[in-house]
Design brief:
40% of the residues lie in helices and 20% in strands. α1 crosses α7 and α5 packs across α6.
């Protein structure tokens, strides 16, 4: 089994990179584990308390559960991956059944920040994209998918996303084995990465 960690700022193009890897490998060969699914359970909190949570801080994630479940996959055990609602700012009751696959991809803004999680990875990738591009993508995504206004997105970017990116996400570049500049638009870089990962797949006998 090969475990790959893919990190990068919000709106950097991580999802595009993941899709390219999945498409480059044999069908049903990859399981993708999104870090966003592992926000802490906030069922015990009030709506006001949830709204005050900084979801761009490392403390917002349930690292213990994520590491436990990645170890389970590595040991050949299926997991029940939690699901999270951005609208409710809480976990949902539903889970996603994930079977162990030859390639496991952990994808999220802070995938490389936790040492115990990094130590489980065979390949660490940082998707690097210009901050202006990331802001535009954030506006497009949050307005359409998360019911936010442009002013809400801009305010959150300046007060939370930008400082948290500079404090926690950008420094994790140093842990990456490979940095992909220009995010999902860097077709050559993604192509080279896919070829490398294909080489990790044992040939059929």
């Amino acid at each position: 089994m090969t475990i790959i960690g893919i990190a990068g700022g919000t709106g950097s193009g991580k999802t595009t990179v993941v899709k390219k890897i999945v498409n480059a490998l044999p069908p049903h060969y990859v399981a993708v584990v999104p870090l966003d699914s592992y926000y802490n359970d906030t069922s015990h909190m009030t709506d006001d308390e949830r709204r005050k949570i900084n979801f761009d801080h490392p403390d917002a994630f349930d690292w213990k559960l994520l590491i436990k479940q990645i170890n389970m996959l590595r040991n050949g055990e299926a997991i029940e991956q939690p699901t999270y609602s951005y609208i409710l700012s809480n976990r949902l009751k539903e889970t996603v059944h994930v079977n162990p696959k030859p390639v496991i991809i952990i994808e999220g803004i802070m995938t490389l920040i936790n040492k115990k999680l990094r130590d489980l990875m065979d390949l660490k990738i940082f998707v690097d994209t210009d901050s202006d591009e990331r802001l535009i993508r954030n506006i497009q995504r949050d307005v359409v998918e998360r019911g936010r206004t442009v002013d809400m997105v801009l305010d959150r970017y300046l007060s939370v996303l930008k400082p948290m990116h500079e404090q926690f996400i950008e420094p994790t570049k140093k842990y990456a084995d490979l940095i992909i500049p220009q995010g999902g638009e860097n077709l050559k870089g993604i192509g080279i990465l896919c070829k490398y990962i294909e080489g990790l797949v044992p040939p059929k006998e």
